[in-house]
Amino acid sequence: MVILTVAAVVTYSNIFNPKKHDDHHKAASHKEHHAPEPAAPPPAKSSHSEEKPCCDEAKCNEKKEEEKPCCDAEKCKEEKKECKEDCKKSDCKKEEGKSEEKQHHDNEKPSTSGSGSGATEDEPKSSSSEGKAHSEKIPDHVPYLMIGGGTASYYAAIAVRGKEAEAKVLIIGDEPSVPYNRPPLSKELWWYADPKSRDTLEYINVSGKRRDIFLESDGWFVPTGEISKASHGGVSLLKNHRVKRIDTKSKKVHLDDGRTIRYDKLLIATGGRPRKLKELQNADGLVRKKIVYLRDVPDYQKLEDICNESDTKRITEIGDGLLGTELAYSIKRKYPKLDVHQVIKGSGNLPNILPKELSELAKFELESNGVKIHSNAKIQGAESGKDGRAILKVSGEDLESDAIVVAIGIEPNVKLAKDAGLKIDPENGGILADSELQAAEDVYVAGDVASYEDSRLGRRRAEHWNHAEITGRLAGANMTGTKTKFWYQGMFFTKLASKLHVSAVGQTDSKLDTVAVCSKESEKQGGAKKCVVFYKEKDGKLVGVLMLNMFGPAIDVARRLIDDKVKVTSPTELAKLFPLYEAETPEKEDQKKEEK
Ligand SMILES: Cc1cc2nc3c(=O)[nH]c(=O)nc-3n(C[C@H](O)[C@H](O)[C@H](O)COP(=O)(O)OP(=O)(O)OC[C@H]3O[C@@H](n4cnc5c(N)ncnc54)[C@H](O)[C@@H]3O)c2cc1C
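Above are the sequence and the flavin-adenine dinucleotide SMILES. Below is the predicted complex in C-alpha cell form.
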C-alpha cells in the first residue's frame, strides 16, 4: 500500500511508507483463521413447539416415500390420531397442491421473539412452524414468491409492484416479524437508545426523530388468506415459516408445516447465518450460554440483557471485521463502565478491508475509545469459571467474560438452493446467478446469498445492506421481465470509533493494490484524520474507493469513477474530487451531536 499525505488542497507532499503489504498480511483471511464449526445444539423450543404433529414428519421424510411430507399434521390432529413414526400417506392424505385453509391470519403487532441466530441453516428458529399445525390461510399459487423475509425480498417485492401495479407477491420468512433493518442492531439501538429500546426496537436519530428498525408496519401487508382475491394485488407476508424444499420443475415450494405453494417466478433471498468458531465447539454448557452470534433481534436482545445485568463486568468480542469492531465500539459507548475487550487475529482492525497502516489506525482509535484490544491473538478455547462467568483462553491469557460475542463473518444460506439442484459458487459461496440475478428458469437471487456476474468487477458476492436493497430491486424488476444487468455498485457505511467513520463502494479488498491519500488538516484542528483509499486492479484501473471520515455525495463520485474504469495514475489529483479538506458539513454537525 502507498499512503500519500497531503497538507493542503494545492500541495501534494511527502509519500511515506510506500511498501506493499507484507505477504503474511496478504494471506490473512477470516476463513483461514476461523474455520466454521459443526452445528450447535438446537435452540430451546418455544411453548408452541410442544404441540406434536400426528406423525413424525422427519422420520417419514427420511424414508423418502414421496416428494411431499408424509401426512397433513393439522388434519391428523383434528382426527385425534396418534403420532405415528411409520405413517403412510394413506394415514392422513392431503390433496396434491391444495392448501388447507383453516383460520384467518390476523394482523398483529410486530413481534420479534425467536430463537436467535445460533441455529444452523437447517434448524428451524423456535418461532418457525416446523411440525406445527397450520395457523393461517395461504394461497395455493402466487405469481411472485420470495423466500426470506429480509431486506432483499422486501425491496424485490417493492420493485415487482413498481413494474406491475396489481402484482400479487408473497414473502415467506422464518422470523416472527415484518422485514427489518439489521444495521441498527449493532449501531443505533446502542447509540441512540432510550430505556425501552430493547423491546420497542425504536431509537431517536441524530435529527431528533423517533425511528424503529422495521421496513413496514404489519398493516401494510395483505393478509395471506386474502392475497389471491385482492383485486389490486399487494404484498403478503407469511411469517414464522421456513421453506423446506423447492421443486423448480413443478414450480412449487414446500413449507415446514407440509403445505405447498406454486409460483410463477421465485426469488431466493435467504441471507446468511453467523459463522461458528471452531475453537469454542467443545465448550461446556455454561460457556455456550454466554456465546452470542449477532444476526437477529433475539441475539441483540440477549446481548443487551447481559450488558444490562448489574453484575456484568466484561464483554469479550471475537472478530476484527466490520460487525465485531463496530459492536465493540457500540457496547463501550452505551455501557462505558463495562470492560470491553476485542480479540483480533492480526495487528489491526478490518484487515480484510483497510490497508495495514489504516487498519492499525482503526485499532488505535478504538483503543482511544476505551476498547481493550488483544492483537495477534490466538484463541485456545473456553471453560466455565467459578462465579458463573466464561473464561476465554486467549494466547495464554484467561479472559473472564460475561458474554463472548463471536463476529467472524457469515455463511450464506445456500442449502435450499443446492438441494433444488441450483449451482453454488465454489469461490464466493453464494447461489450462482448471471448478471440479471437469474439462477435458473424463473428463479432469481438477491442479497447476501447471491453470487452474480458484475460486468465491471467480475463475479462477486457482497454482504451489505445497500447491496441487498439494490439486488433486491434489480431481481424484482427482472422477475417482471425487465432483463436489466447488474450495474449499480452498492455502498456501505459504518462508524467504528468516535473518530472513525468508514464509507466505501466497489471492491474494497485489502489484498488488492491500494493507495491512500490522507489530509492532516482536519487532524490539526482536532478533528479526525481524513483519507481516501483507492483500490486498483493490476492494470491500475480503479475498482473500489473507501473514505475515512468523509461524508456527503462523494460516494457517488467514487461510484462513477469505478464505472468509468478510471486509471489511478495520479492519486493526489484523483483525491481532489473528495472532500479531504472541507470545512463543516451538516453531517459533521450531526457527528458532533452524536459525540455529545
Ligand atoms: C448486526 C448487523 C449489522 C449490520 N450492519 C450493516 C451495516 O452497517 N452496513 C451494511 O451494509 N450491512 C450491514 N449488515 C449486513 C446487512 O444487514 C445484510 O447484508 C442484509 O441484511 C442482507 O439482506 P438479505 O435480505 O440478503 O438477508 P437477511 O437480512 O439475512 O434476510 C434473509 C431472511 O431469510 C430468512 N430465511 C433463511 N432461510 C429461509 C427459509 N428457508 N425459509 C424462510 N426464511 C428463510 C432468514 O431467517 C432471514 O430472515 C449488518 C448485519 C448485521 C447482522
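The CA atoms of residues 245 and 419 lie 8 Å apart.
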